[in-house]
Amino acid sequence: MANIELMKLYKKNKSKEIKDQLIIENIELVKIIAGRLYHSYNSNVEYDDIVSYGILGLIDAIDKFDPDKNVKFETYANFRIRGAIIDNLRNLDWVPRSTRQKYKKFEEAMSKLQGEYGFDIDDEILAKELGLSIEELNSFLSEVSIFSIISLDEKIAENSNFSIVSDDFDARPESNYIKNEDKEILKETIEKLPEREKKIIQLYYFSELTYKEISKILNVSESRVSQLHTKCIVKLKNSLKKIYT
């Protein structure tokens, strides 16, 4: 039975059996989202814990979803699952203070360089700004990548309930919609990224590939994909600051 029909039955009688069936039928979606986030956070948290947080989001989605609205349950559940995982990770405060401080330094450096060079900031320029060698920069980027994904997700969630994963903005089942002009700013920012960084954004957020899969397509290491992704995230976040500040 399709999710929408099950949802209508569940909303009608609140049957525990139907709710359990909905959880079982959508657990694979939780595992997919959990797997992608697990790799994004450099395995600093247990995969099973992330799945558990995702299941809480799925249950919340089942309870709050309105099947009479023109929204796919999978779209709504994706948003709730991802949000629950991020909220729980944020509450754990698992990112070391030193990493947060380094990320802040990195963010400030990138913001300055964006003002001078635009979006095409190579490693040599960034390393010089941070006072690091290329080898030290690679190590630095690998460390701050732990914090970069959750930092962007927090920025987006706090301000607009908008997810970069889906372009289905009009169907987003939340009370606060991102304005059309804001959406255009984000799209324009992605278009300004260097081709390889733009490709990473497309493959990671829209095609929903893992770092390993992207590394094979781009013929670079997984660590290099992570480093480039980290730079992309800060550029996008700096653009979002122009919207929300």
From TrEMBL:
One Pfam match: Sigma70_r4
Keyword Lipoprotein: no
GO terms of biological process kind: DNA-templated transcription initiation
Annotated Gene3D superfamilies: 1.10.1740.10, 1.20.140.160
Keywords assigned: DNA-binding, Sigma factor, Transcription, Transcription regulation
PROSITE patterns associated with the record: SIGMA70_1, SIGMA70_2
Molecular functions per Gene Ontology: DNA binding; DNA-directed RNA polymerase activity; sigma factor activity
Top-rank lineage group of the source organism: Bacteria
RNA polymerase sigma-70 domain sequence ranges: 49-62, 210-236
Family statement: Belongs to the sigma-70 factor family.
Task of the protein: Sigma factors are initiation factors that promote the attachment of RNA polymerase to specific initiation sites and are then released.
Protein name listed in UniProt: RNA polymerase sigma factor
Native source organism of the sequence: Maledivibacter halophilus
Organism lineage: Bacteria, Bacillati, Bacillota, Clostridia, Peptostreptococcales
